[in-house]
Sequence to fold (236 residues):
Amino acid sequence: MNDNIFDEITADLRRDRMADAWAKYGRYVIGSAVALVLIVAGVTGYAALRAGQQEAASARYDALQADIAEADSDQKIARLLAFAEAESNGYGALARFTAALDQAEQGQFDNALSGFDELAGRSGLPDSLQDYAALQAAIVLLDSGGALDDIESRLDDLVDDDNRLQPMAREVLALAYSAHDKPLEARDLLMQQIADGRVSSLTRARAEIMLQTVKGGLIGLPEANAEPETEAKGDN
Fold:
């Protein structure tokens, strides 16, 4: 199933603009990568949250998950939000995350953005989970045609070298630059992605495909870091 999805992504990225491919496949593109990073980067923080709560809170959260397993989307979101409002603990935060993700999937972009922004700024959450919320807020803005400045502000800290979500943040920001007609900025980020020895082979391959798409709109422009020979001759 995943192989078929990524084959389709590859085909669409070659045929269409990156923004079109994002609209169709965006959450498949980075979803699995983000999940893997969260498992590694967020497990310590999540464990700390879990250890700090009473067993009763854990039982209530588990019961909620069981109750809403077969509920429709609106009911699930409403139950999660009610739980988050009632629980001023880590389980309440987890419920808010899940509600915001479901809202984004349902196209309730304003509500999802509000939820992710609140979580990104919530004191007491592990840094990795705050960063994840900021990344998801940027994705919501990209999905909904939000302003580039707003996307950049959510990703500003995430593109730092010491942030574990940097590869995903770069990818989302490159897509945002492409969607907002800034191919040079998109190219530079994608070249950084390709040169980064820490990224997965799948992430690197995806960046290479995206880079070719971006370069298609840069005919006649110099390569990044190339010597500006023509410009220098013009000055003489």
Q: What stands out?
A: The chain has a mean pLDDT of 78. The two ends are 59 Å apart (CA to CA). Residues 54 and 89 are 9 Å apart (CA to CA). The chain is about 75% helix and 0% strand.
